[in-house]
Amino acid sequence: MFMLIIHVIAIVLALTISQQHRLIAASIVIPVNKHTDIVKPLYTALAHFNTSSYLYYSHQNDVPSSLPQNLLILDLDAPFIWHYSYPPQESCDSCPYPVTCEESSCTDLRTTFSYQSLSPSTPCPPSTNSSLYEGYSNCEVCPVNIINPVRPVTGSCDQVIITHYEIMFPLTNGEVYITYLTAGSAHPWNTDRFPAKVFGVIALSSSPYALPAYLRDPVRKVTALCLPSSLSAPGALFLGAGPYYLPPPRSHVDVRSFLSYVNLRKHPIFFGYFIGVEAIVIKNRSISVPENVTAKISTLDPYTTLRTDVYNGVVRRFLKVTKRIPRAKAVQPFGVCFNVSSGGNGTKVSGVKVANIDLMLEGGKKWSISTANSMKQVTDDVACLAVVDGGPMSEHAIVVGAYQLEDNFLVFDLENGRFGFSSSLLRRQTSCSSFK
Ligand SMILES: *[C@@H]1O[C@H](CO)[C@@H](O)[C@H](O)[C@H]1NC(C)=O
Ligand SMILES: *[C@@H]1O[C@H](CO)[C@@H](O)[C@H](O)[C@H]1NC(C)=O
Ligand SMILES: *[C@@H]1O[C@H](CO)[C@@H](O)[C@H](O)[C@H]1NC(C)=O
Ligand SMILES: *[C@@H]1O[C@H](CO)[C@@H](O)[C@H](O)[C@H]1NC(C)=O
Ligand SMILES: *[C@@H]1O[C@H](CO)[C@@H](O)[C@H](O)[C@H]1NC(C)=O
Ligand SMILES: *[C@@H]1O[C@H](CO)[C@@H](O)[C@H](O)[C@H]1NC(C)=O
C-alpha cells in the first residue's frame, strides 16, 4: 500500500490577522488573471503544480521557483475541481492515490454532483463501474465526466479520474495550511482544449466537492472574488471570511465595510450562486421583471445575459435615457451600440457616462451597474451596452456575467447563506487590481 500523496494546487497566500485577535481570522489570497482567449474572456487563478511528478511537498514557506506556474479557470458552478496532469502511477510511491469505484464519493460524483446532472442533455457517455481509464482495470479507479467550460458546445466532454489530494497553502508567516480533497485529473495531452498555461478548473460552487466545502478552521467556508478589468494587473480570490484589507496606503480599510448582503437562493439542480431580483431600475423607472426572478452569478458568461422579455425591457429603457448619444451599428454579440466619437473629437467610453442599471434585490438592497460595467468599448468610436440577449427560452432569466463583476468585490458566504457585493470599487477610488 502506498503512502498518501500530496499535491499542491494553489498558492500564494497571506494570512490576515485581525489586530486584536491574533490568528482568529485567516484568509488565503490567490491572484486572479484576466485573459482574452480566442473563444471568450476568461478569469483564472494562479496555481503551482508540477504536471509530471505531481508530488509537491515542501517545508518551505514559499513556493519554490522551480515549480511551474499553472492557471486554473475560476468556475462558480462546477461540481468539483479537476485538472490535466499525469494521473497517478503505481510505480510512484509519493503520488496522489485514486478513488476507487467502491468509495461513496465515486457514486456521488457520477450522480448527484456530476456535470451530467447539471446538464442532462450533454452527449457524454454515462460513466459506470465498467468505465475504463487507460492503464487501469475496472473499478480500480473512478472515471467521471467533465465538461470543458472553454468549449461548452463542441468537443467539451472528457473523462477524469477522481483522486485524493492534499493541498497545501504555505502561509507567509511560515505556517502551512493543509486541507484534503478529491479532485479529478486527466492526461495532460488533452490540454490543447485550453488556452496556453491553463490546466484545469477551480470549482468555487456550493457543491460538497468544490473548494469552499473543504475549507476549515481557521479558514472559513467563504469565498471572496474581485475580478480585474485589466489584462496586466491581477485581481484577487480570497478564501476565508476576511477581513479583506485594502493595500497601503489604505490598509486600515476593510472592504467588508463597503458591502451589502442578501440571501443566497438554493437552486434545485445547480450548485452555483443565485440571488433574487425584484426589479431592474434605470433612472427612476422600474423595468418589469417576472415576479420574484432569480439571477445567477457567472464568471464564465462574459456578459450579462437576459432572457428576451427582460432584455427588451432593459434595452427600451436604456435607449430612452441615452437618446443624446448617437447610435452605431450593432457589433456582435451586442444589440445596442453607440458612436462615442462625439463629432470626431475622440471621446472614448471613459468620457461617456450613462445612467446606472440598478438591480433591486431583497430588502431594498441595490446593486448598481455603472458605466464601467455596463458599456464596453469595441472600437475606437463605438461602445456597446455589454448585455446579451439570451433568447426567449434561456434557462435563467438573468445571468450576471463577468464583465459586470469586474472591479466589484463579491463575497459568497456559504456559512451564512448570503451574498455580499460592493458595486463598483471605482467609486471608492480603488479597483480589484489594487490587491497586489
Ligand atoms: C517536476 O518535478 C520533478 C522533480 O522535482 C522534476 O524532475 C521535473 O522536471 C518537474 N517537471 C516539470 C514539468 O517541471
Ligand atoms: C460499483 O461498484 C461498487 C463496489 O463493487 C458498488 O458499491 C457500487 O454500487 C457499484 N456502482 C454501480 C453504479 O454499479
Ligand atoms: C427620482 O424620483 C424622485 C422622486 O420621485 C425625484 O425626487 C428624483 O429627482 C428622481 N431622480 C431622477 C434621476 O429622475
Ligand atoms: C420568492 O422566491 C423565494 C424562493 O424561490 C421564496 O422563498 C419567496 O417566498 C418568494 N417571494 C415572493 C414574494 O414570492
Ligand atoms: C461616428 O461619428 C463620426 C462623426 O459623426 C463619424 O465620422 C464616424 O464615421 C461615426 N462612426 C461610426 C462607426 O458610426
Ligand atoms: C476637442 O478636444 C480638444 C482637446 O481635448 C478641445 O480643446 C476642444 O475644445 C474639443 N472640441 C470640441 C468641439 O469639443
TrEMBL record:
<protein>
    <recommendedName>
        <fullName>Peptidase A1 domain-containing protein</fullName>
    </recommendedName>
</protein>
<dbReference type="GO" id="GO:0006508">
    <property type="term" value="P:proteolysis"/>
</dbReference>
<dbReference type="InterPro" id="IPR001461">
    <property type="entry name" value="Aspartic_peptidase_A1"/>
</dbReference>
<dbReference type="Pfam" id="PF14543">
    <property type="entry name" value="TAXi_N"/>
</dbReference>
<feature type="signal peptide">
    <location>
        <begin position="1"/>
        <end position="18"/>
    </location>
</feature>
<keyword id="KW-0732">Signal</keyword>
<dbReference type="InterPro" id="IPR021109">
    <property type="entry name" value="Peptidase_aspartic_dom_sf"/>
</dbReference>
<dbReference type="InterPro" id="IPR032799">
    <property type="entry name" value="TAXi_C"/>
</dbReference>
<dbReference type="Pfam" id="PF14541">
    <property type="entry name" value="TAXi_C"/>
</dbReference>
<dbReference type="InterPro" id="IPR033121">
    <property type="entry name" value="PEPTIDASE_A1"/>
</dbReference>
<feature type="domain" description="Peptidase A1">
    <location>
        <begin position="57"/>
        <end position="422"/>
    </location>
</feature>
<comment type="similarity">
    <text>Belongs to the peptidase A1 family.</text>
</comment>
<dbReference type="GO" id="GO:0004190">
    <property type="term" value="F:aspartic-type endopeptidase activity"/>
</dbReference>
<dbReference type="InterPro" id="IPR032861">
    <property type="entry name" value="TAXi_N"/>
</dbReference>
